[in-house]
């Protein structure tokens, strides 16, 4: 098992106008000190704070298009 000194770097992808994608699994610490975990292989972290599932993205950042 890798230790902090020899661990593989975690890939983080910033999507313009979208979420921050992090190769999982991840543990996120929220401003109030609580933690949330996801064991998915890729996690979308909300950058716009519009998500009902914050801190995870639910694509609420996408603009609604009227027909």
TrEMBL record:
<keyword id="KW-0479">Metal-binding</keyword>
<keyword id="KW-0411">Iron-sulfur</keyword>
<protein>
    <recommendedName>
        <fullName>Iron-binding zinc finger CDGSH type domain-containing protein</fullName>
    </recommendedName>
</protein>
<keyword id="KW-0001">2Fe-2S</keyword>
<keyword id="KW-0408">Iron</keyword>
<dbReference type="Pfam" id="PF09360">
    <property type="entry name" value="zf-CDGSH"/>
</dbReference>
<dbReference type="InterPro" id="IPR042216">
    <property type="entry name" value="MitoNEET_CISD"/>
</dbReference>
<dbReference type="GO" id="GO:0046872">
    <property type="term" value="F:metal ion binding"/>
</dbReference>
<feature type="domain" description="Iron-binding zinc finger CDGSH type">
    <location>
        <begin position="23"/>
        <end position="67"/>
    </location>
</feature>
<dbReference type="GO" id="GO:0051537">
    <property type="term" value="F:2 iron, 2 sulfur cluster binding"/>
</dbReference>
<dbReference type="InterPro" id="IPR018967">
    <property type="entry name" value="FeS-contain_CDGSH-typ"/>
</dbReference>
<dbReference type="GO" id="GO:0005737">
    <property type="term" value="C:cytoplasm"/>
</dbReference>
